[in-house]
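Predict structure. Chain length: 143.
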Amino acid sequence: MIKSARAKSTDPVQEQLREHKAEWNKSVSIFIDNLINLKKTMNGYPSKFHMERSMIGEELPRDPASIIGVLASDFAEIADGCNKIIQEQANYSKTRRRKQVHASTTFKTTSSIDWSQINAFADDYILLAEAALDNVIDKYFRI
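Prediction complete.
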């Protein structure tokens, strides 16, 4: 399924980065499809490289070395595009507008924590865990 609708960014640099990523994703999807079809061809299943099923006793229907060569050059282009996107996004993230933190934003802290209750709960939990472990040891490892 090809998705073509997405929210456009008001920032032209961000929109261009999104378009580059979308183009790169399409090329990666095509590469993956070709790689899967090469695998099917190598295993004797019908694929877009050879439509008929082949037997293991027969020669491979197409020259797999030429297909692998094309896939290798496609992968090099994909890796190149990926490096360009990484650089483009790094440059964009350095120069993009940041959200401003307002001085009126305050964080509420609660200083009314009763640590004695928390410590008592932790002690009870540890005692229960030790008791459960003792029961398991007694049940399964009676000496």
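Summary: Residues 12-95 form one domain.
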